[in-house]
């Protein structure tokens, strides 16, 4: 019984392990710096899963946030007066939490002027539509889970809609040409 209890404590503690942030990342946390989301994401019960389920409340790209805590598996940030936890599942994202921070938050908003009116509208709503570039899809939906889309150079990206359903965006010449539900 003692061994089971110790194993359980070890499992629980491993999810809360500290992480070594870069000096720049630590300064953002220490200085309570306002950052901007670099991708759209969805929160359900104040949790965002880094595999980018499209469920719950949409947090649009360029939303102002402040990171309040980071550990080996999560980044906690404030958004719209609430505390939100971004949960990294490294076996699916293939990046550690510091890499997730880097691609999710930045000091400057994303410059949306580089996108067409169609893309901007879709990005603001967290949607993907035919004709969007790969960059626009990433900004709108976030990065596809790397365990199902191993390389962003591929012409087929699979995203999770929820725990059980996926959607595939197919590309031709770098633009969405088909959406398979």
Supply database-style keywords.
11 strands, three-stranded antiparallel beta sheet, 181 residues, globular, alpha+beta, disordered N terminus, 6 helices
Layout of secondary structure:
Layout lengths: L1 H13 L8 H8 L3 E4 L3 E3 L3 E3 L7 E3 L4 E7 L3 E6 L2 E6 L2 H4 L3 H8 E2 L10 H9 L8 H8 L14 E5 L5 E7 L2 E6 L1
Parallel strand pairs: 3-7
Antiparallel strand pairs: 1-5, 1-8, 2-4, 5-6, 6-7, 9-10, 10-11
Helix pairs in contact: 5-6
What does this structure look like?
With 181 residues, the protein is of the alpha+beta class. It contains six helices and eleven strands. It has helices at residues 2-14, 23-30, 90-93, 97-104, 117-125, 134-141, and strands at residues 34-37, 41-43, 47-49, 57-59, 64-70, 74-79, 82-87, 105-106, 156-160, 166-172, 175-180. The strands form three sheets. The protein has a six-stranded mixed beta sheet. Strands 9-10-11 form a three-stranded antiparallel beta sheet, with no helix packed on it. A hairpin with a 5-residue loop joins strand 9 (156-160) and strand 10. Helix 5 runs parallel beside helix 6. The longest helix is centred in the first third of the chain and has 13 residues, at 2-14. The protein is globular, with a radius of gyration of 17 Å. 28% of the residues are buried.
């Amino acid at each position: 019984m003692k061994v089971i209890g110790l194993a359980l404590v070890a499992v629980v503690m491993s999810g809360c392990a500290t992480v070594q942030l870069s000096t720049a990342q630590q300064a953002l946390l220490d200085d309570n710096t306002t950052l901007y989301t670099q991708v759209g994401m969805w929160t359900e019960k104040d949790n965002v899963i880094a595999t980018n389920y499209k469920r719950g409340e949409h947090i649009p790209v360029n939303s102002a946030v402040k990171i309040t805590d980071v550990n080996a598996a999560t980044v906690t940030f404030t958004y719209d007066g609430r505390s939100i936890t971004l949960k990294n599942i490294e076996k699916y994202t293939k990046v550690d939490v510091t890499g997730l921070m880097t691609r999710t938050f930045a000091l400057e908003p994303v410059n949306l002027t580089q996108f067409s009116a169609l893309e901007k509208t879709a990005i603001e709503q967290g949607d993907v539509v035919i004709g969007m570039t790969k960059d626009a899809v990433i900004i709108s939906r976030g990065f596809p889970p790397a365990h199902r889309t191993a390389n962003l150079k591929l012409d087929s990206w699979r995203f999770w809609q929820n725990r059980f359903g996926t959607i595939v965006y197919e590309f031709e010449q770098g633009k969405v040409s088909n959406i398979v539900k």
